[in-house]
Amino acid sequence: MDPLPNPAPLASKLRNTLVRYHSIGDGEWRVAKKTKDATVWRKPSEEFNGYLYKAQGVVEDVTNRIVDHIRPGPYRLDWDTLMTSMDIMETFEENCCVMRYTTAGQLWNIIAPREFVDFSYTTSYEDGLLTCGISLDYGEVRPNFVRGFNHPCGWFCIPLKDSPGHSLLTGYVQTELQGMLPQSAVDTAMSSTLANFYSDLKKALKM
């Protein structure tokens, strides 16, 4: 188990990585799934032998409220159907923490429940916000869970200029689920999970 990293350089590196992903040209992405709420693309990850996913959709609400529902905090467990528990293990400052969370089994439990320990950082970006994270090798793995690993991932939330009550939400996710899993099952689960994330989030914001 590694000691906790110094948060400032990790936060800065994480932000720079996400900004770089955000500048990847459209031609490098391939559509993986399209629903009325979001489009999901993917490209081979530079971090591991899997995919970097990009999801994007317009969400009807102001940026701060949307990001409050996504980042670690009291809202996330209420609406995210995949997440089954979440604990803040360490808080460095208001916008920076280490959290441990667990996810439900997927695809008729072909993918068993997972546990993650992530460093999370929220910061301003252009006229909106970026909330991002990366997994850490920290804390004991709980029994009955496989420890997964999130390579740099995050959500850009930017208000629409001509419609300030709406925001463009763009996510980048690359999750190494670990364990003996067929890659096709992982790819199916990731695309569906990201599309469902938008529909669940929209329902939560209307409540």
What does the secondary structure layout of this molecule look like, with pairings?
Layout (H helix, E strand, L loop, with lengths): L6 H16 L7 E5 L4 E6 L6 E9 L3 H8 L5 H4 L3 E11 L2 E8 L10 E12 L2 E8 L10 E2 L1 E2 L2 E8 L2 E11 L1 E2 L6 H24 L1
Parallel strand pairs: 6-8
Antiparallel strand pairs: 1-2, 2-3, 3-11, 4-5, 5-6, 6-7, 7-10, 9-12, 10-11
Descriptors:
207 residues; alpha+beta; Alpha-D-Glucose-1,6-Bisphosphate, Chain A, domain 4; ten-stranded mixed sheet; two-stranded antiparallel sheet; 4 helices; 25% helix; STAR4 protein; START_lipid-bd_dom; cholesterol binding; StarD4
What can you see in these coordinates?
- The chain is α+β, with helices and mostly antiparallel strands and 207 residues long.
- The protein has helices at 7-22, 63-70, 76-79, 183-206, and strands at 30-34, 39-44, 51-59, 83-93, 96-103, 114-125, 128-135, 146-147, 149-150, 153-160, 163-173, 175-176.
- It has a single domain, classed as START domain (Alpha-D-Glucose-1,6-Bisphosphate, Chain A, domain 4), CATH 3.30.530.
- Helix content is 25%, strand content 41%.
- The strands form two sheets. Strands 1, 2, 3, 4, 5, 6, 7, 8, 10 and 11 form a ten-stranded mixed beta sheet that branches. The protein has a two-stranded antiparallel sheet with strand order 9-12.
- A hairpin with a 4-residue loop joins strand 1 (30-34) and strand 2 (39-44).
- The longest helix has 24 residues, at 183-206.
